[in-house]
Amino acid sequence: MQKAPAFFLLLALCCFAGQNVTLYAQQGGSGYDETIPDGEDDGSGESDWNRYIPDLYSKGDQTFTISAGTIFPIVFLNNGKVITHNFTPPVGGVGTLAYSRFLSPNFFLGGELEVKFNYTLGQNAVFIIPIGLRVGWQFVFRRFEFPLYAVIGMAPQKYLDLGYFGMYLKGAGSAYYRFNPNWSFGLSADWNWYPQWPMKDGKRTPDKDMYANIIGVALSARYHF
Fold first, then answer.
1. pLDDT score at 164
2. Nearest alpha-carbon partner for 117 in 169, 77, 71, 156
3. Which of 181, 191, 198 is nearest to 213 (CA)?
4. Burial of 106 by CB count in 10 Å (0-12 exposed, 13-18 middle, 19+ buried)?
5. What's the pLDDT score for residue 19?
6. What is the mean pLDDT of residues 104-129?
7. What is the Cα–Cα distance from 172 to 69, expressed in whole angstroms?
């Protein structure tokens, strides 16, 4: 008869432990926001996504971005002096394709290809095709993502029968909303620096150096894989 109390005590301890395990599983890092009511599941998994808060990125996560917007030439320098440029904003547009790969939850590397065009007061077009390497850091708050990045690369330029091949630098930031597991949408803004260091007879001509500063604003869509 003394075995009966011990048996019931053991049974009670097992039930208590099982409740603790269940409570831990409900409160653990599942990524779901329990404050959001459940929706009806249509079999597509969208109701689960509506309750899901994305975790930080993992090493190896990748994104592919498509952007389109307009550009605003702001300051042009010649031999250290601000000059009046032959543009009136907004004067052109930009399209961008970019790839990024995360090396940590926040740090990423990638590359980009752009096509920019400006129209002068005489309605002639200036074309710039920057190709660069980008490096950046991303902040995440729930479904909002804020990548900041810098780009360095080469930029072939064409105006009428004149051409130039030089470097460029860019600093940029974006704000995205993670619409679903595969896509996010947002707005990007950037500053671009295009130096031109012409040469004559194989020698530099510093008095003809030009430095263009251009700001761009674009709508962006980003695919996650």
1. 87
2. 71
3. 191
4. middle
5. 42
6. 90
7. 14
- 187 or 126: which carries more pLDDT confidence? 187
Residues 6+ apart with CB under 8 A from 30: none
Residue position matching structure tokens 């249509």: 42
Residue 95 contacts residue 86 (beta carbons within 8 Å): no
The span from the CA of 66 to the CA of 185, in Å, is: 10
First vs last Cα of the chain: how many Å apart?
64
Q: Cβ(97)–Cβ(113) under 8 Å?
A: yes
At which residue do the structure tokens 């430095």 appear? Answer: 211
Residue 79 phi/psi, 5-degree rounding, is 55, 40
| Percentage of residues of the chain with pLDDT beyond 90 | 45
Domains (range + CATH), the chain: 3-50 (no CATH), 62-224 (2.40.160.20)
Q: How far apart are CA 137 and CA 133, in angstroms?
A: 14
Q: What is the mean pLDDT of residues 166-178?
A: 96
Q: Is 63 exposed, middle or buried (0-12, 13-18, 19+ CB in 10 A)?
A: buried
pLDDT at residue 13 tops 80: no
In this structure, the number of other CB atoms found within 10 A of the CB of residue 172 comes to 22
Q: What is the DSSP letter of 201?
A: T
CB 158 within 8 A of CB 166: no
- 113 with 96: CB under 8 angstroms? yes
Phi, psi (degrees; rounded to nearest 5) at 201: 55, 40
Dihedrals phi, psi of 216, to nearest 5 degrees: -125, 145
